[in-house]
Amino acid sequence: MSNLYFHDLPVSRLTSEAYYVEQDKKIAAFIATEMIPQRHVKTLTRDLQQHANEKYGPWEFNEIIGYIRLHFLGSQIRGEYYGVEKRRYVRSRQKTMLYHTRKLAPERHLRPHATNQEIFQVILQYVEDCRRELPRRYVDDENLRRVGPFIDWNALRISVQSR
Q: How many domains are there within the chain?
């Protein structure tokens, strides 16, 4: 395991859209089976949505089933995978992340004098490789894509390698 990582990517059971659609379906099914007068549906829907948020919480933190820890190893980009040890992934507030593998996808090599933009593109290609290794899972690289163009990847790579 490397402790010289530069970013952790959360891996979720499903996308935020699918999570909230699933939650809304459960609320709608409950309302349909309870034979509630129409004038009370709006109040009940609000109360049920609040209950669902208290019970399951927001998608961003409660559907994570693993992390990909990205790091440089010499001229390579690698990603260790930590995930929940379960046969079936369902909504749960009880998770323990365990180390699974030192290399989720085959490493990607960097050119010796690659520019920051080239390094960032290789990192994004590696993340896509990781997605293929985790079918039916959502790898959240939104923050990496947002800040990646502004990072001095060469300086970071050099500082990590000199540790």
A: 1
Task: Spell out the per-residue pLDDT of the chain, length 163, in tens.
Answer: 445 789 999 999 888 888 888 877 877 777 677 666 665 666 766 767 676 666 666 777 778 889 999 999 888 999 999 988 776 555 555 666 677 888 899 999 999 899 999 999 999 999 999 999 999 899 999 999 999 999 999 999 888 766 6
Range(s) of the domain holding residue 79: 1-163
106 close to 129: Cβ distance less than 8 angstroms: yes
DSSP string covering 96-154: -EEEEES-SS--EE--TT--HHHHHHHHHHHHHHHHHHSTT-EE--HHHHHHGGGS-HH
